Amino acid sequence: MLTINFIFVFFIIASAVFYFYFKTRQFRTRSLFPIRKKMYASMSGSSLGGLLLFFGINQLMLFDGIATYIIAALFILFGAYVGIFNFKAYKHYRSFVDEETKLNDN
Fold it and tell me: Which of 9, 47, 49, 74 is within CB 3.0–4.6 Å of 19 for a Cys-Cys bond?
């Protein structure tokens, strides 16, 4: 049980690191590339969804009680929704990044 908890803590920390990495990439991308900015925003949103999902699962393993189950279920459902929605947005924007780069070449 303790090993599984450490695995989920690792996934929580990794998701947070990826969230901040992609958010930084979004802010540092020039305004010349709006599609790329949206792609990085959706990648950071997917990481945030993963963070919420893993946090909810981790809470289920640590604590007992009806309030914990309700709140963890909300975290899991909301995290899955945010992750799936942003992953679909990432796939959509990814297809336009090469075209945007070709259009903005000097």
Answer: 47
- CA–CA gap between residue 14 and residue 31 (Å, rounded): 28
Euclidean distance between CA atoms 45 and 79, whole angstroms: 10
- With beta carbons less than 8 A apart as the criterion, state whether 49 and 89 touch: no
Q: Choose among 67, 17, 74: nearest CA to 9.
A: 17
- Sign of the Cα torsion 17, 85, 37, 27 reads negative
Exposed, middle or buried, 70 (CB in 10 Å: 0-12/13-18/19+)?
exposed
Half-sphere exposure of 55 (CA within 13 A, CB side): 17
